[in-house]
Amino acid sequence: MAKGISIVQDIPPKHKKVFETISEAGAAIDQDVFVVGGYVRDFYLNRTKKEEDLDIDFVTIGSGIGLAEKVAELLGTDRLSVFKQFGTAHIKYRDMDLEFVGARKESYRRNSRKPIVEDGTLEDDQLRRDFTINALSWSLNEEGYGELMDPFHGIQDLKKQLVRTPVDPLQTFDDDPLRMMRAIRFATQLQFDIEEQTYQGIEEMADRIEIISKERIIEELNKIVLAPKPSIGFAHLFKTGLLHHFFPEMVKLHGVDEVRGVRHKDNFWHTLKVLDNVADMGGDLWLRWAAVMHDIAKPATQKFVQGTGWTFHGHDALGAHWVKRIFRRLGLPLDERMRYVRKLVRLHLRPIALVSDEVTDSAVRRLIYEAGDDIDDLMLLCRADITSKNDYKVKQYNRNFDYVEQKIEEVEAKDRLRKWKNPIKGDEIMEALDISPGPVIGDIKDAIKEAILDGKIPNEHDAAFEYMMSIKDEYIG
What we know:
Elements: H1 13-28, E1 33-36, H2 38-44, E2 54-60, H3 64-75, E3 80-83, E4 88-93, E5 96-102, E6 104-107, E7 116-119, H4 122-127, E8 137-139, E9 148-149, H5 154-160, E10 162-163, H6 169-175, H7 178-190, E11 193-194, H8 196-205, H9 214-225, H10 231-240, H11 243-246, H12 248-251, E12 258-259, E13 262-263, H13 267-280, H14 285-293, H15 298-301, E14 303-305, E15 309-311, H16 315-330, H17 336-347, H18 350-353, H19 361-371, H20 375-384, H21 391-415, H22 426-433, H23 439-453, H24 461-476
Parallel strand pairs: 2-5, 10-11
Antiparallel strand pairs: 1-2, 1-8, 3-4, 4-5, 6-7, 8-9, 12-13, 14-15
Helix pairs in contact: 1-3, 6-8, 7-9, 7-10, 13-14, 14-17, 16-17, 19-21, 23-24
């Protein structure tokens, strides 16, 4: 076996060693093998990951499972998973996920994205790839070891920064409509353009996305949300019509109404700017979803008031109410992550309401209590919500939030409310007042909480106990 890779000299040594072992395994069972897909593409984009978890795909002319079993033997690992029904196998080796599949050709039924699969050649396998930049492969065979296979001019498309289907886009998207989402995801992650015919194909075939499960759609959508500039992807989803099929509430944000010459901003493009701002600030997936959702109920609350202009009163509360329903429909989790997004949507207007020299400590306490450990994320979302093109306004808003954050720090240092728990527990109430379990326990705890938030008593056990004894006759008299 030729030890040097003629084209890929710069791959990390640990990857090269694995490639050599896989080449040896292929020769041992007389099967040609190739590195395919994202690893090859990312090498030419100088995006090869060296230290973190890495997926590498291999295609062999023959049994992918048989090759994987031989590779596992040579690597001395038992971390082999076999999926006989799909003819694939997976090896977890150090920080690499190695995927093996036999070359195949596919045909599709009209109402299903599950292909009819047959054994095929490398050319058949490349023809089924979604985009030219993903159809690149390297030979790991003794003859031509390291040779680049580029049947659809994917390298040229990388240089042109284009996402393009290897065959007729209508056929590509009709076969597997999820590829439309993937085209937009790659364009967003790589900040590439989508080739004109490919883009037109998405527009024409957009309704085919209806046959794709919500789980597959949200997987791609989350990758768009996590991109460096997610607005690129949402703009494409909107313009091609894909977004209309699975996220109509966001589509309704688009547009500007005018009454007597008074217009409001386009809340769709505003939302995308907020999302990009959160991305620039390093926000994680769920803070970014809070940005997507923060104004989602504005169309439903929009009203023109003479002398005031356009108002959206209550869009924060209604939007928070919608979060669970939208998350369920999109296939997003309904656990603490959903509750986190719902909380930030509900509270996103509250900090700006605290911009006043006369603001009470009580109001600040209540915000800290309601936001809890998410107060910092809430403030980041509020700053991201500043999308004015007027530099003076932007500076003024940021000064206002500086003031609010200072007030939060002062009150938190004094009252310690961020991780607040009632200083008096239910068992203590029952023992001190000699009462049985019942709703009155919760009523007394609520009264203590309100007294602390209002500043009537400090956030301390003894003060809370004394306060409880002073009000007990109101509840058990």
